[in-house]
Amino acid sequence: MTATPAPLVRKPDWIKVRFPAGDRYQRLQRLMRDEGLHTVCEEARCPNIGECWNAGTATFMILGDVCTRSCGFCNVKTGRPAAIDALEPFRLAKAVAALGLEYVVITSVNRDDVESGGAEVFASCIKLIRQHDPTIRVEVLIPDFKGNWDAVRSVVDARPFVLNHNIETVPRLYRQVRPQAVYERSLELIRRVKAMAPDMLTKSGFMVGLGETLDETLAIMRDLRAHGCDIVTVGQYLQPTKVHLPVQRFWHPDEFQALRDYGGELGFTRVEAGPLVRSSYHAEQQSSVAHASAPSAAHPNSLDEVIMLDEARRG
After folding, report:
1. Of 113, 146, 238, 259, which has the highest C-beta tally within 10 A?
2. CA 312/CA 170 separation, integer angstroms
3. pLDDT value at 162 more than 60
4. Bridge pairing between strands 270-274 and 231-236
């Protein structure tokens, strides 16, 4: 029997992305190629690449551009990666210096082919960037390292300003969306990081539009907060190619606002939620606000509002 394809969900008016252009965008693109570096902005086809690159912000992707996992939402290549490049941290530090960045975000592909998951390369990148300029703030978006907590500790010990690990979706959808990951393991990673370094900002993010329910979405936020997550990002899933998981629905901007309000009630120091929000979108502003402020003021009716929005959508 041939599977029936999912119906095409038309993009709403609020999903608008500018074509990437501009002098600074082109300069950063050339620098990445010259230094043999990769960015998740390009590999994951991020809708904010033009805005971020022209503002001088990019999320560097280390450990190559081939991932050992096959997530249903991600446009990064899957396969057998090349050997880890020991000189990559030096090239990355050189690029950061050339760009004059004050805030750097570093992420990676999954490297399940090596026991450490490449954690030592994250640590080297942080240290070498700081050697050039100790005032540079470094945020890392790390994989789960398959639960290798010694590997996680090596990254924490390098003292990133923010440590991010994305939960990505609700546990019910992990088999389709994130088959080689474990929901509970990702929560445990956040909890352990907070225990290792209570003063370190922790962060996580997830997508909506993959078929999750409102109750499941709110449960993710509660789980993250209960495990010591300080900052959370929520964005609309956009299908990168026809072979990836289809969009089940587009969440309305009012629903994202309600999630921001609910996150404030839970005690997150920063909630970034919107149709085009991604893990590293406005990362510097997120971390600055989270570091400087108390938990966001709660909206007294925000949970009621998010439930009303969901009920109205379902008719």
Report:
1. 259
2. 22
3. yes
4. parallel
Q: What length does the chain have?
A: 315
Other beta carbons within 10 Å of 307: 15
For position 298, what pLDDT does the model report? Answer: 36
In percent, how much of the chain has pLDDT > 70?
72
Same domain? 55 vs 142: yes
Query: What would the pLDDT profile of 186-204 be if each residue is shown by its tens digit?
Result: 999 999 999 999 999 999 9
Residues 209, 152 share a domain: no
Q: What is the per-residue pLDDT across 257-285, written as a single tens digit (0 to 9) for each?
A: 999 999 999 999 999 999 988 776 555 55
Number of domains in the chain: 2
Q: How far apart (Å, rounded) are the C-alpha atoms in residues 198 and 220?
A: 21
pTM over 0.90: no
In DSSP notation, the chain reads -PPPPPPPPPPPTT---PPP-SHHHHHHHHHHHHTT-EEHHHHTT-TTHHHHHHTT--EEEES-SEES---TT--SEES-PPPP-TTHHHHHHHHHHHHT-SEEEEEE---TTSTTTTHHHHHHHHHHHHHH-TT-EEEEE---GGG-HHHHHHHHHT--SEEE---BS-GGGHHHH-TT--HHHHHHHHHHHHHH-TTSEEEEEEEESSS--HHHHHHHHHHHHHTT--EEEEEE----STTSPPP--PPPHHHHHHHHHHHHHHT-SEEEEETT--TTTTHHHHHHHHHHSPSPPPPTTHHHHHHHHHHHHH-
